[in-house]
Amino acid sequence: MIDVVALGELLIDFTQSRSNDDSVRRFEQNPGGAPANVLAVLSKFGVKCAFIGKVGNDVFGEFLRNQLLDLSIDCRNLVSDSDYNTTLAFVTLDDKGDRSFSFYRNHGADTRLSAEEIDLELIRECKVFHFGTLSMTHEPSLSATIKAVEYAKSCGKIISFDPNYRALLWENEDSAISAMKLGLMYADIAKLSLEEAQMVTGKTLPEDCLKELLKYKLGFVAITMGPRGCVYATDKYIGAFPEYPVNVVDTTGAGDTFWGTLIFGFINSNANFLEISEEKLSEIVLTANIAAAMSTEKKGAIPSIPEFAKVRAAFEEIKGK
């Protein structure tokens, strides 16, 4: 049985690498795409996962498929398209490891997934269905996303949502906000960056954003804030953790590592986020916060996922103080 199914973008991150010549930029090929990154975390931690999406029938698509298969992620519904190329993202880093993106996606293969190409049986078998908004920027992937999430909802699956806002991929900010609000209406659990939370709610302070987000009837919501750590809430509890101290090299995929680790915590402990204790919830979120920080110590999203034993050791050290 599949535990978690994710639908969305799967692409190549060309991440800037160090060069002895400041006039020459060099880039390393890495697998990317937020939904796939979340599954990579879960699969690495022992959760059975499947991915729904589309790549080009090209060397990059083949590379991405092999990367997921190497992680034991079910790729039976990863479609190859001979008419559209795999989406590419070039990621440049500043001296703090923070990212800037450039996308080659005008009719990238990930936007061409159609509703008819979705294997609904995969969704019917799973416990958690995860999606974001980048599959909602264009048709036909928008309609495919809505079909999949509505089917998952009708089957009583836990709906997980992470907007993963990228301004360059939207016609305008209002379109992105509308998609984020639509996603929240379906979601049971959600993770947003502080920027996304502020866009959706119109509030500035993280605590105020949480209160507004809970109006979407979410069972759990978290807001990640980079060097400021994270805040989270249910209708019963609210909490926060500061950033776990590490030597930051590349922040790509840190939010995905946070969310994948958090979903793992729920699944691994058989926790019901509607009935979970405050202590157990705090443990799960702190573990996710540590994993996210550790993922910034290496370049790339999937290659930087830490070993769970290392994350757990850091958690035990913190709790022992």
From TrEMBL:
<keyword id="KW-0547">Nucleotide-binding</keyword>
<dbReference type="InterPro" id="IPR050306">
    <property type="entry name" value="PfkB_Carbo_kinase"/>
</dbReference>
<protein>
    <submittedName>
        <fullName>PfkB domain protein</fullName>
    </submittedName>
</protein>
<keyword id="KW-0067">ATP-binding</keyword>
<dbReference type="Pfam" id="PF00294">
    <property type="entry name" value="PfkB"/>
</dbReference>
<dbReference type="GO" id="GO:0016301">
    <property type="term" value="F:kinase activity"/>
</dbReference>
<dbReference type="InterPro" id="IPR011611">
    <property type="entry name" value="PfkB_dom"/>
</dbReference>
<keyword id="KW-0418">Kinase</keyword>
<feature type="domain" description="Carbohydrate kinase PfkB">
    <location>
        <begin position="1"/>
        <end position="306"/>
    </location>
</feature>
<dbReference type="GO" id="GO:0005524">
    <property type="term" value="F:ATP binding"/>
</dbReference>
<comment type="similarity">
    <text>Belongs to the carbohydrate kinase PfkB family.</text>
</comment>
<dbReference type="InterPro" id="IPR029056">
    <property type="entry name" value="Ribokinase-like"/>
</dbReference>
<keyword id="KW-0808">Transferase</keyword>
